[in-house]
Design goal:
By secondary structure, this protein is of the alpha/beta class. 40% of the residues lie in helices and 19% in strands. The chain binds pyridoxal-5'-phosphate (PLP).
Protein backbone atom coordinates (compact mmCIF):
# COMPACT_ATOMS: atom_id res chain seq x y z
CA UNK A 1 0.00 0.00 0.00
CA UNK A 2 1.21 3.50 -0.81
CA UNK A 3 1.11 6.22 1.79
CA UNK A 4 -1.79 7.81 -0.05
CA UNK A 5 -3.66 4.49 0.27
CA UNK A 6 -2.80 4.46 3.97
CA UNK A 7 -4.11 7.97 4.34
CA UNK A 8 -7.31 7.31 2.37
CA UNK A 9 -8.06 4.27 4.49
CA UNK A 10 -7.56 6.28 7.66
CA UNK A 11 -9.56 9.23 6.35
CA UNK A 12 -12.48 6.94 5.46
CA UNK A 13 -12.45 5.52 8.96
CA UNK A 14 -12.47 8.86 10.78
CA UNK A 15 -15.49 11.19 10.81
CA UNK A 16 -15.06 14.07 8.35
CA UNK A 17 -15.26 16.81 10.95
CA UNK A 18 -12.20 15.45 12.74
CA UNK A 19 -8.93 16.89 11.48
CA UNK A 20 -6.04 14.57 10.72
CA UNK A 21 -2.60 16.06 11.29
CA UNK A 22 -0.22 13.94 9.23
CA UNK A 23 2.85 13.68 11.45
CA UNK A 24 5.78 13.79 9.06
CA UNK A 25 8.70 14.03 11.49
CA UNK A 26 11.85 12.26 10.23
CA UNK A 27 10.15 11.68 6.85
CA UNK A 28 11.54 13.20 3.63
CA UNK A 29 9.96 15.99 1.62
CA UNK A 30 9.03 13.50 -1.13
CA UNK A 31 6.73 11.66 1.26
CA UNK A 32 5.05 14.91 2.30
CA UNK A 33 4.66 15.96 -1.34
CA UNK A 34 3.02 12.67 -2.20
CA UNK A 35 0.25 13.38 0.29
CA UNK A 36 0.19 17.08 -0.57
CA UNK A 37 -0.33 16.29 -4.25
CA UNK A 38 -3.23 14.10 -3.20
CA UNK A 39 -4.77 17.19 -1.60
CA UNK A 40 -3.86 16.90 2.06
CA UNK A 41 -2.47 20.13 3.53
CA UNK A 42 -2.13 19.60 7.27
CA UNK A 43 1.19 18.30 8.57
CA UNK A 44 2.76 18.06 12.01
CA UNK A 45 6.37 18.21 13.13
CA UNK A 46 7.84 17.96 16.60
CA UNK A 47 11.16 19.79 16.14
CA UNK A 48 11.56 23.46 15.28
CA UNK A 49 14.62 23.02 13.08
CA UNK A 50 13.07 20.25 10.99
CA UNK A 51 9.79 22.15 10.75
CA UNK A 52 11.50 25.34 9.60
CA UNK A 53 13.58 23.53 7.00
CA UNK A 54 10.54 21.73 5.60
CA UNK A 55 8.55 24.97 5.57
CA UNK A 56 11.29 26.60 3.48
CA UNK A 57 11.52 23.74 1.03
CA UNK A 58 7.86 22.82 0.53
CA UNK A 59 4.74 24.51 -0.90
CA UNK A 60 3.66 27.53 1.09
CA UNK A 61 0.00 26.55 1.43
CA UNK A 62 0.85 23.64 3.72
CA UNK A 63 -0.60 24.15 7.18
CA UNK A 64 2.16 23.32 9.63
CA UNK A 65 1.39 22.27 13.18
CA UNK A 66 4.09 22.16 15.86
CA UNK A 67 3.22 19.17 18.04
CA UNK A 68 6.42 18.74 20.08
CA UNK A 69 7.96 20.60 22.98
CA UNK A 70 8.78 24.22 22.19
CA UNK A 71 11.59 26.21 23.78
CA UNK A 72 11.02 29.92 24.26
CA UNK A 73 14.15 30.90 22.32
CA UNK A 74 12.96 29.02 19.23
CA UNK A 75 9.52 30.58 18.88
CA UNK A 76 10.87 33.25 16.53
CA UNK A 77 11.73 30.70 13.87
CA UNK A 78 8.18 29.37 13.47
CA UNK A 79 6.15 32.48 14.33
CA UNK A 80 6.00 33.73 10.71
CA UNK A 81 4.17 30.67 9.41
CA UNK A 82 3.00 28.12 11.99
CA UNK A 83 -0.74 27.33 11.87
CA UNK A 84 -1.19 25.76 15.29
CA UNK A 85 1.09 25.15 18.26
CA UNK A 86 -0.16 22.10 20.19
CA UNK A 87 2.34 22.20 23.01
CA UNK A 88 2.03 25.35 25.11
CA UNK A 89 2.90 24.48 28.69
CA UNK A 90 3.98 27.78 30.29
CA UNK A 91 2.73 31.36 30.45
CA UNK A 92 6.30 32.44 29.68
CA UNK A 93 6.14 30.53 26.40
CA UNK A 94 2.76 32.01 25.58
CA UNK A 95 4.14 35.52 26.18
CA UNK A 96 6.98 34.87 23.76
CA UNK A 97 4.58 33.46 21.15
CA UNK A 98 2.49 36.60 21.57
CA UNK A 99 5.55 38.82 21.15
CA UNK A 100 6.69 37.06 17.99
CA UNK A 101 3.15 36.92 16.60
CA UNK A 102 2.87 40.67 17.07
CA UNK A 103 6.17 41.17 15.23
CA UNK A 104 4.77 39.16 12.35
CA UNK A 105 1.44 40.94 12.49
CA UNK A 106 -0.47 37.74 13.15
CA UNK A 107 -2.55 35.96 15.74
CA UNK A 108 -1.16 32.52 16.49
CA UNK A 109 -3.53 29.74 17.54
CA UNK A 110 -2.35 27.56 20.40
CA UNK A 111 -3.44 24.55 22.44
CA UNK A 112 -2.51 24.05 26.07
CA UNK A 113 -0.74 20.73 26.50
CA UNK A 114 -2.14 18.84 29.45
CA UNK A 115 -0.21 16.06 31.13
CA UNK A 116 -2.52 13.08 31.39
CA UNK A 117 -0.05 10.19 31.12
CA UNK A 118 1.43 8.39 34.08
CA UNK A 119 4.95 8.86 32.71
CA UNK A 120 7.56 11.24 34.07
CA UNK A 121 9.06 12.18 30.73
CA UNK A 122 6.00 13.84 29.24
CA UNK A 123 5.65 17.60 29.17
CA UNK A 124 2.49 19.44 29.95
CA UNK A 125 0.43 21.24 32.54
CA UNK A 126 -1.58 19.60 35.30
CA UNK A 127 -5.29 20.39 35.30
CA UNK A 128 -4.66 22.87 38.12
CA UNK A 129 -1.80 24.60 36.38
CA UNK A 130 -3.79 24.89 33.17
CA UNK A 131 -6.70 26.45 35.00
CA UNK A 132 -4.38 28.91 36.73
CA UNK A 133 -2.86 29.89 33.40
CA UNK A 134 -6.29 30.45 31.86
CA UNK A 135 -7.35 32.59 34.82
CA UNK A 136 -4.14 34.59 35.06
CA UNK A 137 -4.33 38.33 34.54
CA UNK A 138 -1.24 38.16 32.33
CA UNK A 139 -3.13 36.19 29.71
CA UNK A 140 -5.60 39.00 29.17
CA UNK A 141 -2.89 41.22 27.68
CA UNK A 142 -1.84 38.67 25.09
CA UNK A 143 -3.86 39.82 22.11
CA UNK A 144 -1.80 38.01 19.47
CA UNK A 145 -2.31 34.49 20.76
CA UNK A 146 -5.56 32.61 20.86
CA UNK A 147 -6.06 29.47 22.96
CA UNK A 148 -8.37 27.34 20.86
CA UNK A 149 -8.32 24.16 22.93
CA UNK A 150 -6.29 21.47 24.66
CA UNK A 151 -3.87 18.70 23.71
CA UNK A 152 -2.92 15.51 25.51
CA UNK A 153 -0.90 12.34 25.06
CA UNK A 154 -1.94 9.12 26.76
CA UNK A 155 0.39 6.68 28.45
CA UNK A 156 2.20 4.45 25.96
CA UNK A 157 0.57 1.15 26.82
CA UNK A 158 -1.42 -1.66 25.25
CA UNK A 159 -3.92 -1.46 28.09
CA UNK A 160 -6.78 0.32 26.37
CA UNK A 161 -8.58 0.98 29.62
CA UNK A 162 -5.69 3.13 30.85
CA UNK A 163 -5.71 5.18 27.64
CA UNK A 164 -9.50 5.45 27.72
CA UNK A 165 -9.45 6.77 31.29
CA UNK A 166 -6.82 9.37 30.45
CA UNK A 167 -8.64 10.61 27.35
CA UNK A 168 -11.93 10.70 29.23
CA UNK A 169 -10.41 12.74 32.03
CA UNK A 170 -9.05 15.23 29.49
CA UNK A 171 -12.40 15.46 27.71
CA UNK A 172 -14.17 16.16 31.03
CA UNK A 173 -11.62 18.83 31.86
CA UNK A 174 -12.01 20.33 28.39
CA UNK A 175 -15.80 20.53 28.82
CA UNK A 176 -15.43 22.17 32.22
CA UNK A 177 -12.90 24.71 30.95
CA UNK A 178 -15.00 25.54 27.94
CA UNK A 179 -18.11 26.06 30.03
CA UNK A 180 -16.35 28.04 32.75
CA UNK A 181 -13.98 30.28 30.80
CA UNK A 182 -14.83 30.13 27.10
CA UNK A 183 -18.60 29.84 27.05
CA UNK A 184 -19.03 32.68 24.56
CA UNK A 185 -15.85 31.94 22.66
CA UNK A 186 -16.71 29.77 19.74
CA UNK A 187 -13.09 29.34 18.77
CA UNK A 188 -12.32 27.30 21.88
CA UNK A 189 -13.33 23.95 20.44
CA UNK A 190 -10.30 21.80 19.68
CA UNK A 191 -9.24 18.70 21.55
CA UNK A 192 -6.05 17.24 20.10
CA UNK A 193 -5.60 13.64 21.23
CA UNK A 194 -4.85 10.33 19.60
CA UNK A 195 -1.87 8.98 17.66
CA UNK A 196 -1.39 5.87 15.50
CA UNK A 197 -1.81 3.51 18.43
CA UNK A 198 -4.77 5.10 20.13
CA UNK A 199 -6.65 7.34 17.70
CA UNK A 200 -9.76 5.13 17.75
CA UNK A 201 -10.08 5.53 21.50
CA UNK A 202 -9.43 9.26 21.17
CA UNK A 203 -12.17 9.68 18.58
CA UNK A 204 -14.66 7.80 20.71
CA UNK A 205 -13.76 10.08 23.58
CA UNK A 206 -14.26 13.40 21.81
CA UNK A 207 -11.06 14.27 19.96
CA UNK A 208 -11.46 16.91 17.24
CA UNK A 209 -7.86 16.61 16.00
CA UNK A 210 -5.79 13.42 15.78
CA UNK A 211 -2.02 13.42 15.19
CA UNK A 212 -1.14 10.37 13.15
CA UNK A 213 2.31 9.52 11.80
CA UNK A 214 3.36 5.91 11.44
CA UNK A 215 0.04 4.60 10.16
CA UNK A 216 0.36 6.96 7.20
CA UNK A 217 4.11 7.15 6.59
CA UNK A 218 5.28 3.82 8.00
CA UNK A 219 7.31 3.32 11.15
CA UNK A 220 10.22 5.61 11.97
CA UNK A 221 13.82 4.47 12.50
C1 LIG B 1 5.31 11.50 16.80
C2 LIG B 1 4.11 12.12 17.42
C3 LIG B 1 2.82 11.73 17.04
C4 LIG B 1 2.53 10.66 16.00
O1 LIG B 1 2.97 9.41 16.43
P1 LIG B 1 2.58 8.07 15.62
O2 LIG B 1 2.58 7.03 16.67
O3 LIG B 1 3.63 7.89 14.59
O4 LIG B 1 1.23 8.27 15.03
C5 LIG B 1 1.75 12.38 17.63
N1 LIG B 1 1.92 13.35 18.56
C6 LIG B 1 3.15 13.73 18.96
C7 LIG B 1 3.26 14.81 19.98
C8 LIG B 1 4.28 13.14 18.41
O5 LIG B 1 5.50 13.53 18.81
Amino acid sequence: MSLVDNFNKLRAEIPKEIEIVAVSKTKPNEAILELYNHGHLVFGENKVQELTQKYNELPKDIKWHLIGHLQTNKVKYIAPFVTLIHSVDKIKLLKEINKQALKNNRIIDCLLEIKIAQEDSKFGLSFNEAEQLIQSSELKDLNNVRIIGLMGMATYTFEDVVVLNEFQSLKSFFDKIKQTYFAEKEYFKELSMGMSGDYKIAINTGATIVRVGSIIFGSRK
